[in-house]
Design a protein that fits this description.
This protein has 140 residues and is α+β, with helices and mostly antiparallel strands. It is built from two helices and ten strands, in the order ααββββββββββ. The chain has a domain of 93 residues. Helices cover 27% and strands 34% of the residues. Strand 3 and strand 4 form a beta hairpin.
Length: 140
């Protein structure tokens, strides 16, 4: 009998921990995701997507900006192309920060794990895993 009570108590605790949160929090997250996608659409306005690439040479990349937790947009060095990367895991905000990886920094590739850090202090903010790079070029 004692074992049954312990099992039931454990099951109740586990069920309580797996609750998905309040409907308000879910609605707020959905609203934020819609806002992030709208901002991305604005950034890509007037551009056409090219075929996805597995890797991009570091020399082709300039600044980067995060749109939500799973999209990083890298500006090409000339500004004519934006590389959209939908990460395979949530990523910290990259704006104004630097990226490092354990693989070659001569290029970034799909599957690379990156760490977002502040160059001046060396503080790390977390990391994520990169997806494919889709180039968006200006229409003429």
């Amino acid at each position: 009998m004692k074992n049954i009570i312990i099992l039931l108590s454990s099951a109740i605790l586990v069920a309580g921990c797996t609750h998905g949160g309040s409907p308000e929090a879910s609605a707020s997250a959905q609203a934020q995701a819609a806002e992030d996608e709208a901002a991305l659409a604005t950034a890509l306005a007037g551009r056409v997507a090219g075929p996805p690439q597995d890797c991009v040479a570091e020399g082709e990349l300039g600044t980067q900006k995060t749109y939500g937790r799973n999209v990083i947009v890298f500006t090409g060095r000339t500004g004519d192309v934006l590389f959209v990367n939908r990460t395979t895991s949530a990523c910290p905000d990259v704006a104004g920060r630097s990226l490092k990886t354990t693989t070659s920094m001569t290029r970034l590739c799909r599957g690379d794990n990156i760490i977002v850090y502040e160059p001046a202090s060396g503080a790390e903010f977390g990391g994520c895993s990169l997806g494919e790079f889709t180039p968006y070029r200006r229409t003429r």
